[in-house]
Fold these 2 entries.
Entry 1:
Amino acid sequence: MQERGPTLRYAVNERPPLFIAAGLGLQNALFVISGAILLPILLRAADLITAGEAAFLISASLLTAGLSTAVQALRFGAVGSGFMLFMGTSGTFFAATFDAIALAGIGFVAALALIAAPTEILIAQFFRFFRNVLTPTVGGVVVMCVAVTVVPLTIKQWNGVGTDHAGSLEYMLIGGVAVLAMVAMIVLAPARYRLWSPILGLAAGCIAAAITGHWSFNHASDAAILGFPIGEWEAPTFPTSGAAFAVLGAFVIATLAGTFETVGDAIAIQKVSLRNFRRIDYDSVRGALNADGVGNALAGIFCTTPNTTYSSPIGMVPVVGVASRWVGLWGAGLMIVMAFFPILGGFVLDLPGPAVGGVSFVALLLLFIVGMQTVVDAGINTRTALIVSLGFWGGFTGEFADELGLPFVEHIPEALAPITGNAIALGSVIAVLISTIFVLMPKRRYHWQGAASTDSLDQVIAFGKDVSSGFRLETGPANRLGLCLEELFTHVVENGDPDRTVRIEATANEDEVEVVVTDRSDVRDVEVPNVPPDLLAADSDELQDLGLVLLTRLATSVNHTSIAGWQYVSFVIARQYREIRVVQQQ
């Protein structure tokens, strides 16, 4: 268990002062706003939409992003993660959106967003069946792939690629000033000032841009002060043509990629938002997926592009030390306000690209570290190492296949381009496929199912002996397996309805045996037992977790997962005998 207290000033449930909450809300919202504005600009530059439609898409995207972010933070029942997860226009939908608008206009995009919305909600509904596939290891790989995908874009923005000043010394200087100022704040500033490192880095870059004459306010001066371009609102339409269904397929693929990204972000934000993080709350992950589905439904209603979670603010949490959901709520409110004040969106659009690119570059590097830490915390073994290496490097290769000059690129079917050309999509698919293969691989399994009653204890003990005999465990590992299984089953039957059924499954590989107990109850956390400070003076109630202490000492690892009321408690026993040493503390 890893302590995060010393660097976390405000955890998810703590309310920081108004100035900090609002300021950080704006700071994080800038990452989302830049993405929400980028797509309409690209569509307008390609002459696929009018200026009025571009203004409408910007306002509708900001409104959708603000509402979706608020839903994530507030957690309405099973909808929302309860954490500071910012939502915004997803880059994975860019290519499909271009094709959809070229084919049938904005109304077709709205229809596709409504069709995509139930996908994540369905996955969330049956998430417990995917618990062994969408693991923290896979989530960490996805977060790392997000950084790999977006970092090159931030470098291009820093260098001004696509502008008249591409590669100029001035642009390099502007971005360099922003990066140096931000890094200096992170490294040298006290904790209470470090939280403003992104906004101060951006400010330093803006000053450098103003000095060099590369900061203008053309968009802000042309934008209206107040208004919402409601006249461009179109009804969802779906043309019945082969091309339309091809675009739908691309949208489905993009939705799955966004689903994997949301899972990764929902896992990563938990690890950096709690002072004493113990284990993943998969109900929160399910809530994040439900909120993502609601966000896509809102995008369809407001006739704009689908959205997903934004990873950049997650990478900044360990640096700024603030993970409060109030930051998310303030950021959500600011995006909603900006949707009705086009001049504010114009001001953000006028921010110097090199400064924005430099600050985003640092934030994405920090996000990569969060993803890597998620992978390491999940544990490294032969299987997880294969998932990480093939998933990450497969995504990296797909993202930069053209630059690497790989000969097989030209032979890839065009229909697979949304997957093979995007590190997030390809890395996610590879990691999920390998994880699925490991789950489905033929294994020798032992099953037991019976009543959650002490009367079943003898059957459970006999089951443990059958497992040890079937897997040919030596005396030491066999004894540890039997003791762990007995203590865990005893703990489970003490909670919940006595008429319920408990299921036990045991599998093995060449190094270890894993036992999983599945139960539908309110069983307390097994991973962190309560031990009284004075055992001699403790009463029977205070001593009830001593069996769990034995479990956590004898097993190689213990994991407790709760999903939608279902408890999955597992422990691993090494096949080789391991001496248990008790160290007496002075």
Note: DSSP finds 22 helices and seven strands in the chain.
Entry 2:
Amino acid sequence: MHNRIEIGNLKVDKRLYELVKDEIAPGTGIDGDKFWTAFDEIVSEFAQENRLLLDKRDSLQEQIDAWYLEHKGRPVDHDTYSTFLTDIGYLVPEDDDFIVTTEDVDLEIALIAGPQLVVPVDNARYALNATNARWGSLYDALYGTDVIDETGGAIRGDSYNPIRGAKVIAYTEEFLDEVISLESGSYSDITQFLLKTIDGQLQLRVKFSNGEEVGLEDPSQFVGFTQDGDNLASVLFQNHGLHIEIQIDREHPVGKEHPAGIADVILESAITTIQDCEDSVAAVDAEDKVRVYSNWNGIMKGTLETTFEKNGKMITRRLAPDKAYTSPDGSTFTLSGRSLLLIRNVGLHMYTDAVLTSDGEEIPEGFLDAMVTTFAAMHDIQGNNKFSNSKTGSVYIVKPKFHGPEEVEMTVRLFERIENALGLKPNTIKIGIMDEERRTTVNLKEVLRIVSQRLVFINTGFLDRTGDEIHTSMVAGAMTPKMDIRNEPWMRAYEDWNVDIGIETGLPGITQIGKGMWTKPDEMAEMLETKVNHPMAGATTAWVPSPTAATLHAIHYHRVNVSNWLEELALRERASLRDLLTPPLLKDRELSDDEIQREIDNNAQGILGYVVRWVDQGIGCSKIPDINNVGLMEDRATLRISSQHIANWLHHGIVTKKQVTETFERMAKIVDEQNSDDSNYCNMSPNYDQSIAFQAALDLVFKGCELPNGYTEFVLHPRRREVKARKE
């Protein structure tokens, strides 16, 4: 047991106490002991309510299980089921219409539609990379991915391939022709960019190889430029609120080969980033939480940096500076060099031993997250930081895994108390609502009503939402195969319902409406082809797995004017509640033995591939090869759906415990082989009983029905602590 500092009714881990005292508090006007005294009062006020809300989750689930058992073998009548859910308080009546009125929202959230990154804040390098991903090279994104095919000699290779480079430039020029159109001609024919004063106003002109000069089809898209001495160094455009910068350098290896000297095309890419304390991190104790909070504090102060080796060279990563330009009217302006940051806290169900009560009980981890991350953000609010995040003085906290309006209401009051404790003005702390649990989905309008003065974000997420769908309806019957769930009526209703409610409550122009992650970071051609569906569905932002993916996904927001699409979508009828409440059951569908085995093979391999890194190495999010060796971005959301799916089939006799165990043992050998190049990896086979990670994976399935809401943390955290204890 590490040393603890007693303050009031709390016992604070000494490492956390010292982080707050020595690193976070200085410069805020609040000393460390005052912080903990205020937090002690907050814990005393809200801890019991938090526990009662979790008890209500369990009670509702027990009643739903009992209802399905009572109606077993009979078709479910929607009206009867809806009445039952209303009677037990799961489904609440909708009140009158209202409009969200959140104030002091940064433009990146309120008005600019574009990609969003989610990154584990416990990894300083990743956290900085994501923060700096506001701008990305389109040339690099195209050259290094499968968007550009390798036919005709255009292979990637270890050195620059001019054949491939030519394809990249051609793709980029076609894109520019489409979104920053010239009066006539093509970017492929430009030999020079010129600034000329026409009718008293500075305008951009381009010269072609035949000597002809033209301007932009829409001159207002030209918004800035930079110069290197007397030479034009870059020109800046704006389309649908997003910026594109063409860099001109005739001495650059690429620029000197281009007729107009274009060295690169830079896209405004990750407009916002969620720094994550939740599903993508493996923070199980005070040591881990201190690392999480320390990195966030460093970002808020602008001082975070990390040094690492890459390609044989030592590189130091810091926060990127702002970008300065001259506008056509001669004035100067800057654009942020960094993504606007939100911070995702953990959900209500999580408890931590980083702080204990005087009785030795763990406290709600979400309380600690909210208090500490807001305290650190005061450096940004008060202007103590080297690089500004929010220009409106707001703190953006994303809250996951809410179950309905009551939990949101308590969180609003919790944030009010934190604001009072830290001397912040009302509604400084904004809330992003993750619509990933069914009780929040079906009550979304009433959830948003409660948070209408703080809301900045709603989104959908297939994985966690499906995990909760399976667990909620666990007793109802066996589920369809996992990939088929995407095509069930409830899924389309869920995705549409989220946007419909967002439009009804006036979110466009005030908050983000988001869609979920692209999970295949190496399949960028497929992403570019399909993820355009997200802005076309009304999403002002959608998650991507890397800075490169953010640059490529930005193309979609140049091609789709999301605000116009939202106006069109506002005319349709709201999605069906009946569909939302219809679980994706297998019903009378017969599956072959091969289909069943393929399904559990796929799920088991994915579970093991993720869990073994989480438990043994504390890696909360990484690219995991699937059963076909396709790299997939995995976090606890993907784990939840896979483990719940096998648990459901086991519960309904589709598979047996023996079959599942044998499958996991067989898949463990495959996962061991896939990780054979990792010197830090510990094999699970052949000593399965001795592998803590392997036993954790089995627990997730065999205890899947009893785990509250199917959450994986209740298995992962104690198993990770067990591994850490072995190493001490």
Note: Residues 563 and 597 are 45 Å apart (CA to CA).
